[in-house]
Amino acid sequence: MTSAVSQGPLEASRASSTVAPNRLARALIYAALILFAIYYLLPLYVMLVNSLKPLDEIRQGDMLSLPMAGTIEPWLKAWATAQIGVQPTGLKPYFMNSILMVVPAVFISTALGALNGYVLTKWTFRGADIVFGLMLLACFIPFQIVLIPMARMLGILGLAGTIPGLVLVHVVYGLGFTTLFFRNYYAAFPSELVKAAQIDGASFFQIFRRILLPSSGPIIVVTVIWQFTNIWNDFLFGASFASVDSIPMTVALNNLVSSSTGVKEYNVHFAGAIMAALPTLIVYIVSGRYFVRGLMAGAVKG
Amino acid sequence: MSFLQIIDLEKSFGNVQVLKRINLEIEEGGFLVLVGPSGCGKSTLLNTIAGLEPITAGEIRIGGRRVNDLHPSKRDIAMVFQSYALYPNMTVAQNIGFGMEIRGVPKPEREKAIARVAEMLQIDHLLDRKPSQLSGGQRQRVAMGRALVRDPQVFLFDEPLSNLDAKLRVDMRTEIKRLHQRMGTTIVYVTHDQIEAMTLASKIAVLKDGVLQQFGTPSEIYNNPINTFVADFMGSPAMNLIPATITNGAGGLAIEMERPSAPPVTLPLASPPKGLAAYKGRSVIFGVRPEALTDPDGADRNAASIAQTECFIEVVEPAGSDTFAVTHLGGKGVIARLRADANIQPGTTAPLTFNLSKSVFFDPETENRIL
Amino acid sequence: MKERLQDYIPKLVLSPSFFLILVFVYGFIAYTGYLSFTDSRILPSYNWVGLENYERLWKLPHWWRAITNLAIFGSLYILICSVLGLLLAILLDQKIRAEGLLRPIYLYPMALSFIVTGTAWKWFLDPGIGLEHTMHQWGWESFAFDWIKDRQMAIYTVVIAAVWQSSGFVMAMFLAGLRGVDSDIIKAAQIDGASAFTTYRRIIIPLMRPVFLSAFVVLAHLAIKAYDLVIALTGGGPGQATELPATFMYSYTFTRNLMGIGASSAIIMMIMIFSIIIPYLYSELRTGVKR
């Protein structure tokens, strides 16, 4: 069950499955693969080239051509001066909101997930399976079911419309996954090491800090990437619980794109969309391998 | 005065009872081996002695002190694990010194202790390596070093040799025995390998399904097994357990065994166990070890009671030091252990000698020894 | 005494998380469940009305639109993603030299927010500036692709964008499955004279049944939850043409102020997801115990 986390799932452990077919077949295979690559890259390409064109050129030219009179004006506008909601602030403050929300939420949910995984594998007790089952099931609930009570709860806690409120929401609904990741990883961690450390007199936290944590690098990376991507990309909670000064990037982008007043500045929209995508894209490019592991571990169950 | 005592120990996981009223004891400096097939509860028993698992009922005493509720680190024990359980992120020296570090032993003292143990085990040149850079045998030594450095009252070994290849296993077995002789510390040792049990132990406890079958010295266990399970488990090749019938022969009791396409074999019993008289005319299980079933030239001339008979040899397996021959008695394949140069051909009939003073009898219903 | 404290530490460490989950997940589900039986409108009310909300919900054409759309969207999304994912995985499994380059390209959309995906596809599919406009520029004057403005066809544009986002992920699942097949079995099939096609059809794909199941469960649960993409791509329109249960719940609860009906639609979404997820998790955990 843990293989997806402990080893790269796509690293070929054997040579590929079949005998090499003839040349024509191989040419067809490559052609198909390249066509698909174009299909996946096209929207990103369109966004990128059009974000560097003046608005006139978009209207007159075709969307696939490279910019004739390249300009970074749309980027500057999207970042600093575009009208979002009622304020002409650009996306900058919302980008900051997202950072302020994502960093603590990722840190807290990962730390709690690690401790939970440690307890659920190395200090099991009667009922631990039920606890884990309930936490696991919580990963899959449609969030619509918690929107109404959550809004009230945040009001009661005095966190309505604040960034700490959003952090709380993302920690709570990320806990299931972080616990799942660490539980599966630690399940494969030899229990004899924990026993040996107990005989050596190490306490609960000493064992965690000195024995498990130094070996947890890969799963910490996987979990941080997973949480970062999910929380950064979240829209529903941001749209539901944020107020004017705590709106995250995705919600701001949607406000920018779907504002019905004035001229539709496609180039600014595209620049904004790339800005919103950039942090997760960079993480993906830098550590794609871990990103895939997280996806697989999150998807291919507990 | 026993040093380690286990009194009426019981252990359950939920509704499943894995250890049932275990009573064991070993004197100071003794070497107790817990042996049995996998799932018999021997590792669980060791874990309860270590304090890694709580017990359901009973008592564990080490050096006269009741340790039931003590944390593993307070029981004055050390343990060597099957997987060695070396901390992968620490060097050999840090591995050995970790327990002292936790207890707050000052660094110079720690280093002295590490050096002493490393020298004893000849791993001083490995102290700065990580476990992943060590061979299996070296890891084994480091694991033992971590245990030795504690200078405990009891050493616990959990199948420490089972991850080594065959040759290294024999070397390390000798080393453990030598270490025990030198240190004189009490050892409890778990294994599923009956040869390890025989060679190392001063006392053996045979377990099956959470029940202690027999507890005694290696020779008691080997020569006087209390039931067919112990008889079958200890010894390799295993003891022949032949269905047979007790008859009244000319000079007293005799034993009769069926043969395929030949009249039954009947052997007179010169000194049968007293209990056997009650089995006259009934079936029993006749237990004879392969080394007590030999060619006439290889037989023990001094044995009190021997009997010879012609047997049809089905298979011959030369093993270098001995030659094993398989014949058919009582509806089962029976293994005889002959001299290496015994002249014997499969598909022929050859004389075999039973050393009846070394043979034992079991009740086929209860599978217990008839005494 | 100190020993006893040590015994409780693990449970103490776990308890805050467990408490949060109990209250914020299960407590909240119970609360929403309760609201679905009340006449709550703009604010929660505790006035019990029995099944009235559910009865009203199932009489609303708007809800039926959302459910029908979910059926269309969900089945096409799962089907196309699985077929495309499997095809890509098999193609990539042919000792492709550039695999290390291609695989990340197929998979990167999964790292994007649905809002970004929606924005990109919204303009790509917009007849005014997107594909249709471009084709006209290139001289293909009769080319028409205006599904996103077409009430009948708009839901299919949601499928297009969603497949673009998720199919690479399904590819990764299948590829991992293919790579997990014991190579001795494939050698045996080759010795038996099976062609590459036959080997896939008769040996490898049947062995990947668990991957199909995982992919189905993941995609089905994503489909039921789908919200962001619709908001960014079509906003549920034109009209109600791309409304899904998730957007329905949001607008009834927070825009139309019919909280009781919104709560009952959320409960139905949860029942749909749980009826897929619970049997799956149960069987997964079962086999996990045996291993």
List keywords for this structure.
heterotrimer, B: 371 residues, alpha+beta, six-stranded mixed sheet, five-stranded antiparallel sheet, 8 helices, C: 291 residues, mainly alpha, MetI-like fold, 73% helix, globular, MetI-like (chain C), MetI-like_sf (chain C)
Note down, in words, how this protein is organized.
Chain C: Its main location: membrane. Chain C: The chain crosses the membrane at residues 12-34, 70-93, 105-125, 153-178, 211-238, 258-282. Chain C: It is a multi-pass membrane protein. The complex is a heterotrimer of chains A (302), B (371) and C (291). In chain A, 71% of the residues lie in helices and 0% in strands. Residues 1-9 and 11-19 of chain A have low confidence and may be disordered. Chain A is built from 15 helices and no strands. Chain B is an alpha+beta fold. Chain B has eight helices and 20 strands. In chain B, a hairpin with a 2-residue loop joins strand 9 and strand 10 (211-216). The relative contact order of chain B is 0.11. The mean pLDDT of chain B is 89. In chain C, helix 1 packs across helix 13. At the A-C interface, helix 2, helix 5, helix 6, helix 7 and helix 8 of A face helix 1, helix 3, helix 4, helix 5 and helix 6 of C.
Could you write a compact summary of the structure shown?
Chain A is mainly alpha-helical and 302 residues long. Chain A is built from 15 helices and no strands.
What is the CATH fold-level name of the largest domain in chain A? MetI-like fold
Give the amount of beta strand of chain C, in percent.
under 5%
> Shape of chain A, please?
globular
- Seen as an oligomer or otherwise, the chain set is heterotrimer
- Please, what is the CATH homologous superfamily of chain C? MetI-like
- Do you know the CATH architecture of chain C? Orthogonal Bundle
Low-confidence stretches of chain A: 1-9, 11-19
Number of domains of chain A: 2
Number of beta-strand segments of chain A: 0
In the CATH hierarchy, the third-tier topology of chain C is known as MetI-like fold
Helix content of chain C: over 70%
- What top-tier CATH class of chain C fits best? Mainly Alpha
Largest sheet of chain A, if any? none
Membrane topology (chain C): Multi-pass membrane protein
Family (chain C): Belongs to the binding-protein-dependent transport system permease family.
Transmembrane segments (chain C): 12-34, 70-93, 105-125, 153-178, 211-238, 258-282
Subcellular location (chain C): Cell membrane
